[in-house]
Design brief:
Distance between the termini: 74 Å
Mean pLDDT: 79
Number of strands: 4
Helix content: 40-55%
Strand order of the largest sheet: 1-2-3-4
Structural class: alpha+beta
């Protein structure tokens, strides 16, 4: 006696459990993608801040090369602006991850980012080591 075969349509169908698992995997991958994308934005902000600091440091060094008798503590932004690359007409600012504009202080070497509330961005935790990083 032969056993009846199921119709071909029912043999290839997905179960509800399989579809649920596939959807959950897709949602997890989408969430991971959004997290990576937000980290890329933070990295870009750090890279841009580092580039801005480098440009200000170049301008500061060029000013000091032309004016060797001026002390670093006496340098103002107005003195450095003509020495900035790309014919800048104003001192650039750095944008914090919160969206606030941060100022760059040029009366120290290397220049540092002033957060505006009395603290300074210096990952090395030493303001006398002449090192700075941006975008950890």
């Amino acid at each position: 006696m032969k056993t009846p075969r199921r119709p071909l349509v029912f043999q290839r169908a997905f179960t509800l459990m399989e579809m649920t698992i596939v959807l959950l995997v897709l949602l997890a991958l989408t969430r991971a993608g959004f997290m990576v994308f937000s980290r890329i934005g933070d990295w870009r902000a750090g890279r841009d801040a580092a580039e801005t600091l480098r440009n200000v440091h170049i301008g500061q060094r060029m000013f000091l090369a032309d004016n060797p008798t001026v002390l670093v503590t006496n340098i103002t932004t107005a003195l450095v602006i003509p020495y900035l690359p790309n014919n800048a007409t104003a001192m650039p600012t750095v944008r914090a991850l919160t969206g606030a504009n941060l100022n760059i202080l040029v009366n120290q070497t290397p220049p540092i980012i002033d957060s505006g509330n009395g603290t300074f961005y210096d990952p090395s935790a030493s303001r006398t080591d002449t090192l700075w990083d941006v975008g950890e």
